[in-house]
Amino acid sequence: MRIANVNGRAHLLSGPGAIDIARASGGRFGPDPMDLFAHWDAFRTWAHTDGVHSSAPYRREDLGAPVPRPGQVFAIGLNYAEHAAETGLEAGPGMPSVFTKFTSSLTGPTGTVQLTGPSVDWEVELVVAIGKEAYDVAAADVWEHVAGVMVGQDFSDRDVQMSGTPPQFSLGKSYPGFGPTGPALVSLDEIAPDIPLRLRCWVNDELVQDGSTDQMIMPVPVLIERISSVCTLYPGDLVFTGTPAGVGMGRTPARYLAPGDEVRTSIDGIGEMAHILR
């Protein structure tokens, strides 16, 4: 199933149309996309067994962040070896490098994003949404705790990110609009967890990133095993899982986004997003 946020209401996408979940369920599940996570198992059963419902057309620009207000957002740095190398930073073998994108940065899969300076960079990422509370979960059991996956873009103001001693990541990655996700939350019955997914990012018509999830240093089950050994992950929490090589700061000379640039972010089998920088 593919769950979308259409004008602030939770919908199931069905071909070219969308089914309003609250109306189709007779109010059993609320209209707020976050309501689904409080009853995730029951919702998933209903979505797969309750039969056919009428759908209505929607516009791409009507889509918001599928998970608009997660309680926690975990973001992973340096999870692809070639990306770590291009930034001149080292990826360690132990705990992942974890920071956050504050929830005020989250936005939907289309629209405009305001540049905050001359060093705003791009990072395509697979984003995982938690469906079942997870604490100290073994890697072999992680997928049982996952609601689904989305396309993510981790816009980053590198000047802010690298300021301070030592540098801190979270603020430079958390300006308004710096955390697009979407276009829908795709459940694991549509995306086989063990099949690699191709991630790509374009700036205007130039392909700047082209990687695969099988290049992760720590695959999703290992990431969540290690995060959950410290933190409890709750239904609706998000994990941005890292970016492959090809970011602007890794180029010689460095290249960053300018007003009018369009950034397209795509993961095969999940969907594509597009944003204009202002």
Descriptive overview:
Strand 1 and strand 2 form a beta hairpin. This protein is globular. It starts with a strand and ends with a strand. 43% of the residues are buried. The chain is mostly beta strands and 278 residues long. The mean pLDDT is 95. It folds into two domains: 2-58, no CATH class; 73-277, Fumarylacetoacetate hydrolase, domain 2. Helix content is 12%, strand content 32%.
Any chance you could write out the topology, listing elements then pairs?
Layout lengths: L1 E5 L2 E6 L2 E4 H4 L15 H10 L6 E2 L5 E2 L8 E5 L3 H7 L9 E3 L6 E2 L2 E4 L6 E2 L2 E7 L15 E8 L2 E2 H4 L17 E8 L11 E6 L2 E7 L7 H9 L9 E3 L21 E6 L3 E7 L1
Parallel strand pairs: 6-17, 8-14, 9-19
Antiparallel strand pairs: 1-2, 1-5, 1-14, 2-3, 3-4, 6-7, 10-13, 11-12, 11-17, 12-14, 15-16, 15-18, 18-19
Question: Which terms would index this structure?
Answer:
278 residues, mainly beta, Fumarylacetoacetate hydrolase, domain 2, 2 domains, twelve-stranded mixed β-sheet, five-stranded mixed β-sheet, 19 strands, 12% helix, 32% strand
Strand content range: 25-35%
Name the overall outline. globular
CATH architecture of the largest domain: Alpha-Beta Complex
N- to C-terminal separation? 34 Å
**Cα-based radius of gyration, to the nearest Å:** 18 Å
Organism: Streptomyces brasiliensis
Pfam families: FAA_hydrolase
Protein name: Fumarylacetoacetate hydrolase
GO molecular function, one term: hydrolase activity
Task: Please sum up the structure shown.
The chain is mainly β and 278 residues long.
